[in-house]
Amino acid sequence: MAQALLLVILLLSFISPAFAAATKAPNWAELTPAQKEILAPLEPEWNGMEVQRRKNWLKRAERYPNMTPEQQQRVQSRMREWATLTPEQRKQAREKFKNMERLPPEKRQEIKRKWKQYQEERKHQAPAAPQSPATPPDAVPQPAR
């Protein structure tokens, strides 16, 4: 009996660090300087984020050096925008994304085309009062349920 218990303890001592590493994401202080630079817009809320969200951002940060300067600029801009959203606005954005993913591919393409057209029209208009980067109301229809 004592041998079995010792074996279980020994196995757990090897499994626990691997399990902890798989379920934990580093807090802000544990990030590398490069990660901190890339993820800077998220610093104020980083330690309060769910583990999976931090892991997702870390994956994006890994891809960042291989992006073109334009892609890097877009990522930084979107992070800054995301950081300014309220929790309710983030929840709405996640819901819109989920709804978009449920749509048939041709409908998603149509929405992307409309969104690009909308952005082009905004570029060519004289800048008025600053507008939020919200999706136009008709851009993401709710899927049929």
Commentary on this structure:
The chain has 145 residues and is mainly α. Among the domains are: 21-84, no CATH class; 87-116, no CATH class. 67% of the residues lie in helices and 0% in strands. It contains seven helices and no strands. It has helices spanning 2-23, 33-38, 43-46, 51-63, 69-84, 87-102, 105-124. The N and C termini lie far apart (57 Å). 3% of the residues are buried.
Question: How is this structure best summarized?
Answer:
The chain has 145 residues and is an all-alpha fold. It has seven helices and no strands.
Query: How would you describe the shape?
Result: globular
Order of helices and strands: HHHHHHH
Separation of the first and last Cα atoms: 57 Å
Please outline the major beta sheet.
none
Residue fraction in strands: under 5%
What is the average per-residue confidence, as pLDDT, rounded to a whole number? 80
Keywords:
145 residues; mainly alpha; globular
Question: Topology, pairings included?
Answer:
Elements: H1 2-23, H2 33-38, H3 43-46, H4 51-63, H5 69-84, H6 87-102, H7 105-124
